[in-house]
Amino acid sequence: MFYSLAIDPIVFSIGSLPVHWYGLILGLGALTGLFLCIQEGKRFNIPQEFFMDMLLLGLPSAIIGARLYFVAFKWEDYKDNLLDIFKVWNGGIAIYGALIGAIICGIIYFRYKGYPFWRIVDICAPGLLAGQMIGRWGNFINQEAYGGVVEESFLRDKLHLPDFIVNQMYIGDAFHHPTFLYESLWSLLGILLLMVLRRQKFVRAGEIFMSYFIWYSIGRFFIEALRTDSLAFDGSSGVAAFINGLWSPMKWMGFEQGYLDPAYGNIRISQLLALLIIVVAIALIIVRRVSGQPKAHYQDPIISTKPAAADAVVPESAVNTPQKPSQPVQPVEDPSKDKETKE
């Protein structure tokens, strides 16, 4: 059977500079996340410039963190080709690394602006999922982050996918699981869940952000094992067996794990990290609740500790217009005294 050629990863070129779909899709994801943050920020009277500056600082921090995370676990592939480290348009970034970079940047930026960390990251949580949901389509274009081999009938008849996805999943000499699509849809469901959850009065500060980590990590744990390009390491056979046991419900639904090269290890890093994040996030929610630490609810007002005057813009006319010297005040004579003098 004839299959159409894969989608060209280059949209167009400006002179000798190619513009990649991957970069455009990541940009679209970032702007979508920004839009959601700005819309929710209006409820708390947070200026949109705050979120725009946050994106300008956070996006490069996230990309750097994502790339460093990926390169660190793939160092053997890069140590002899250091320039390839900077070629992020070819793919090879890790979402967990991006989150680490963005969180570090956020801690510094929010403190500088005087906003409480937990309150702002709660607002940003659906935007993060939106960025990830859209960003996964960059993996689709690059034909990366895909799963194990499947039959064409599985994609067409069971998943009912359109031709452009089915054809793009024909990689090498076989069809593969569209794991990018699974994660994208999981993120979409997560956005809807968080938007409903943040309207509930019982939700405390920080719990939307923790819920984001829990939701995303649950999906990542099960989807990661379908992939064939997972970052991995050699670990305890008992830990590996425990992880595989937790994943076994996927087998009952007819899924098989993707091939994991023994040279990389026997434990997928993202699966183990997902489990740790789930446990830590749940523990944080419980400990903070028991200790009474999160006194603020999600719906409470958000107030910056920095004086509002510091952010005020002085009109240019007030700065450039010279002030006229004040005229001396002439005393007003009392008419009754003048009358008395004349008499």
From TrEMBL:
Write out the residues that bind a 1,2-diacyl-sn-glycero-3-phospho-(1'-sn-glycerol): R136
Q: Which Pfam families does the UniProt entry name for this protein?
A: LGT (PF01790)
Q: Name one GO molecular function term.
A: transferase activity
Membrane topology annotation: Multi-pass membrane protein
Q: What is its main location?
A: membrane
Report the InterPro entries cross-referenced here: Lgt
- Metabolic or biological pathway, per its Swiss-Prot or TrEMBL entry: Protein modification; lipoprotein biosynthesis (diacylglyceryl transfer)
Protein localization? Cell membrane
Could you list the residue ranges that cross the membrane? Answer: 20-38, 50-73, 93-110, 203-223, 267-287
Q: Which UniProt keywords apply?
A: Cell membrane, Membrane, Transferase, Transmembrane, Transmembrane helix
Compositionally biased intervals (Basic and acidic residues): 334-343
Polar residues: bias regions: 318-329
Q: Which residues does the annotated region (Disordered) include?
A: 313-343
EC numbers for this chain:
2.5.1.145
The record's listing under NCBIfam families reads: lgt
Q: Which family does it belong to?
A: Belongs to the Lgt family.
Q: What does this protein do?
A: Catalyzes the transfer of the diacylglyceryl group from phosphatidylglycerol to the sulfhydryl group of the N-terminal cysteine of a prolipoprotein, the first step in the formation of mature lipoproteins.
Identification of the protein by name: Phosphatidylglycerol--prolipoprotein diacylglyceryl transferase
- What does the organism's lineage look like at the top? Bacteria, Bacillati, Bacillota, Bacilli, Bacillales
